[in-house]
Amino acid sequence: xxxxxxxxxxxxxxxxxxxxxxxxxxxxxxxxxxxxxxxxxxxxxxxxxxxxxxxxxxxxxxxxxxxxxxxxxxxxxxxxxxxxxxxxxxxxxxxxxxxxxxxxxxxxxxxxxxxxxxxxxxxxxxxxxxxxxxxxxxxxxxxxxxxxxxxxxxxxxxxxxxxxxxxxxxxxxxxxxxxxxxxxxxxxxxxxxxxxxxxxxxxxxxxxxxxxxxxxxxxxxxxxxxxxxxxxxxxxxxxxxxxxxxxxxxxxxxxxxxxxxxxxxxxxxxxxxxxxxxxxxxxxxxxxxxxxxxxxxxxxxxxxxxxxxxxxxxxxxxxxxxxxxxxxxxxxxxxxxxxxxxxxxxxxx
Length: 349
What we know:
Radius of gyration: 21 Å
Helix content: 25-40%
Distance between the termini: 13 Å
Number of domains: 2
Number of helices: 12
Oligomer: single chain
Number of strands: 14
């Protein structure tokens, strides 16, 4: 089949959604299909720009290209799933969250603070009901996203997990002994809440260190927070580290920390498990909680700096516990997250 993976792209921004789209395209090709990413550049601000972006996707004709039919489209996120096609498959990463569960959040709300926000929110919700109902199948990348979709629009879906490319690579590597650093790789932005991990480092009693890997708008504020706290020797940054460097950081870590707010899915958890490292996450972190069970594959603590610090210190003091949790996490990954050939077969079933 000729399959278009449709993807809205914010220029010069790269994260899990881009990794997901590229990995899906490669997996489709490996399964014998002809596949390409069809991307449209856009941004989510101001609110009126969202309406323009929605109209572009809705008006896009992907029934054929260069005289040859496009047999299916797979859409991963808003507003790409507004595209019309007789065989539209949605594998939902997330809806436009500020029109739904983040609408009135005291810290993360965005759309509701704009004059046109209420009208645009209503347009988004109406469009989502129509476009998602058109899909032949609706999958989500996690149970958390499945729940949000049902709670907001009463649309049924099927969770379908998948592995990031780095997860696959780490599964074939041998980890070293647990080191002294806790690794937190993620985009440096408010929803990822790196500041909580930095604040936790003010309360640790052991020699544990924190390594933040990523890039994003929060970098200057996080560096300033580290400087004010006098933590320059305990908290280090690796901006946009390549995958080979990131793999070494995973394999040599004491543990992996991943404490975003209500994450959709999150590759970090799976990559930590693939490296046989325990994952410390938070009680309100969403997607990671589908894999991290407190005391079995990692530690789950409240979103409070002192509680996070205690988890870091506990693993630093008990390396046997860190090893046991990490090994158990790897078994959960292998048992519950299918390899790409199985994912592709399910999507196109």
